[in-house]
Amino acid sequence: MSQRIRIATTSLAGCFGCHMSFLDIDERLIELSEKIEFDRTPLTDIKTLGHCDIGLIEGGMGNTENYELLREFREKCDILVSMGACAINGGIPAMRNSFTLKECLETAYVEGVGVTDPQIPGDPEIPLLLNKIHPLHEVVKIDYFLPGCPPPAEMFWTFLDQLLNGQPIEFTYSQIHYD
Amino acid sequence: MNLKAATRLGGRIGHFSIDGVRLPFREGQTIMAAAMEAGVYIPHLCYNPEFTPHGSCRLCVVRSNGRHLAACTTPAAEGLEVESYTDELQEQRRELLQMLFVEGNHVCPACEKSGACQLQAVAYYCGMLAPELTYFYPQRTVDASHPDIAIDYNRCILCELCVRASREADGKNVFSIAGRGIHAHLQINSSTGKLKDSDLEVTDKAAHVCPTGAILPRNLGYNIPMGKRPYDQKPISLVGDVADHEESS
Ligand code: SF4
Ligand code: SF4
Ligand code: FES
């Protein structure tokens, strides 16, 4: 059993869409499950990250907790993969980079429609937002990039299949898109 | 023989080759113009056969006699042997594309031009998976003052096609590039700097030549389903430039 490739996944400033697209490989998940096993991922209940062969990360880096987790993934995963537009360039959430953080927080928590008791949340339990959303490769070394919002299921399949078989990673034209 | 055919044949002065394929060229033709006419694709963004070559995007750079040359500004010559689709040049193009992507805010998932964008299509053709550089995240304001056309300056790649089209085809001179270095930016030649106070009309050539989603005719966004947009199924080398498809979208 320990021969199986260990994979961890996580979502930082992501929407979980990349995970859903990964699951879109459908029944091929069964075939895959004979070759891989999951460590910490939103699909398992494992709370602490162990040493893994592959780490798949969706979402950009938007707050201090994202930063900590990203560093930990880099430390513990031999191969780290940026999956999806958000991990690659911040994606749609990075549109907030056009505004100051103060403007964003005030719009949501002070001036927001239907807001009662307007105040910007400040409990220390809540991770602080960074001034800007950042792509993952600005913080740690990334080994592979899977573009798309989300990357198509076929891209996940091609990537894992070729990687597990030790082949060079090559995508077809229709598998590569940024939207 | 009619006059048109005569000039075409008469003007043909020799042959050169791209990646080993022999192509004819006419008097005064650049490598790019001759290649395009023969249906051989060389990646390009700032080149549009209707306007004076510009030489700013550098994507068309090819190799000949150990030198790198911009195909859009270098004249074809008898016996010239040109390399274009090599690993080295494609790698260089991917690097240039990465620079263009990190310099602006190319949020393709939220961009109306996605799937019909020449910048994106060339990046697909060159196999760029991700811009692995540090992002600039510019904060330029969007100009939505004009009733028919909007400009998102954060997607402008300074190809000057709108500048050339407005000047050469529309005779209006609506656009210019101002500033230096990384501060270079597109500027509207109107008293307020706003599009609404310029002479630009949606029927102008300049409103339809932008290879990215910077200049957009309004109220047309997302009107083509995914899968049916120009570059969804086939690469730009087969589909052609975005300006040729603009009218239909
Ligand atoms: S202009 Fe093109 S490359 Fe830029 S965001 Fe829009 S679709 Fe993407
Ligand atoms: S607005 Fe479009 S056409 Fe004009 S310079 Fe920028 S990218 Fe080129
Ligand atoms: S097409 Fe030649 S430099 Fe842009």
Automatic annotation (TrEMBL), chain A:
It comes from Thiolapillus brandeum. GO terms for molecular function: 3 iron, 4 sulfur cluster binding; oxidoreductase activity. Its cofactor is [3Fe-4S] cluster. Residues 15-162 form the NADH:ubiquinone oxidoreductase-like 20kDa subunit domain. Keywords: 3Fe-4S, Iron, Iron-sulfur, Metal-binding, Oxidoreductase. It holds the Pfam family Oxidored_q6. This is NADP oxidoreductase.
UniProtKB/TrEMBL annotation, chain B:
Its cofactor is [4Fe-4S] cluster; [2Fe-2S] cluster. PROSITE patterns: 2FE2S_FER_2, 4FE4S_HC3, COMPLEX1_75K_1, COMPLEX1_75K_2. Residues 88-127 form the 4Fe-4S His(Cys)3-ligated-type domain. The keyword Cytoplasm does not apply. Its main location: membrane. GO terms for molecular function: 2 iron, 2 sulfur cluster binding; 4 iron, 4 sulfur cluster binding; metal ion binding; NADH dehydrogenase (ubiquinone) activity; oxidoreductase activity. GO terms for cellular component: membrane. GO terms for biological process: ATP synthesis coupled electron transport. Residues 11-88 form the 2Fe-2S ferredoxin-type domain. The keyword Signal does not apply. It comes from the Bacteria. Signal peptide: none annotated. Gene3D superfamilies: 3.10.20.740, 3.30.70.20. It is found in: Membrane. Keywords: 2Fe-2S, 4Fe-4S, Iron, Iron-sulfur, Membrane, Metal-binding, NAD, Translocase. InterPro entries: 2Fe-2S_ferredoxin-like_sf, 2Fe-2S_ferredoxin-type, NAD-red_Hydgase_HoxS_gsu, NADH_UbQ_OxRdtase_75kDa_su_CS, NADH_UbQ_OxRdtase_Gsu_4Fe4S-bd. Composed of 13 different subunits. Subunits NuoCD, E, F, and G constitute the peripheral sector of the complex. Belongs to the complex I 75 kDa subunit family. This is NADH-quinone oxidoreductase subunit G. It comes from Thiolapillus brandeum.
